[in-house]
Amino acid sequence: MQESKMDEMVLTVGTGSTWAMRAALVLGLTGFKWREQVFELKDAAALHRLKQQAPAGLVPWLVHDGVRVHDSLAIAEYLHELCPDRGLYPADPARRALARSLCAELHSGFGQIRSRLPYFLGAPRKQEPPLEALSELARLQVIWAQAGASFYFGAPGILDAFYAVMAQRLFNYGIALPGAAGAYQQHLLAWPLWQATLERAGKDWPALAAKSQG
């Protein structure tokens, strides 16, 4: 059946946006088809156009069937409601609550890691972990050490999508966590869906942004 214009999904993202990468990764888990609108976040004219469409001036947002939802976590929740059988969250209520709690913790926390180790697209470089970020890295160690042998709850879900970007951020600075936490980090880094999303963010998104600028 051909998808109608009303049913079309459009994800608006920004170049280099880690939150947009998370939303795109969760979308990839759903099996839905979507297209992407991309803004170049380092371009003043593009940012002006962005703020005309999004008063907060933030990406990502998703438009689907007349519904507009912004913020990566809200998008993830919306997608879970659209396809509850896809297992984006665990079926078990306790595990589902834990998954939501850990996503929310990532969404609102780890400020020192974000500020001291800013995300970048490009070749990794070696850097010692900043002292200010050590306590947050220790917290990640605890969270990731509780993951399953592959994905956190056995099958890929929203929680893995959210933490895959963090795994890449640390990798970009040569930071590999030890033990079981490190094994989970390496599994996320090698996840084919994450690798495809990373490549799209690094190559396709800048090209689409440039095309939209004319």
From TrEMBL:
GST N-terminal domain ranges (all copies): 7-87
Pfam families: GST_N_2
Transferase among keywords: yes
UniProtKB keywords: Transferase
PROSITE patterns according to UniProt: GST_NTER
GO biological process: glutathione metabolic process; L-phenylalanine catabolic process
PANTHER family, alphabetized: MALEYLACETOACETATE ISOMERASE
Protein name per UniProt: Glutathione S-transferase
Organism: Aeromonas molluscorum 848
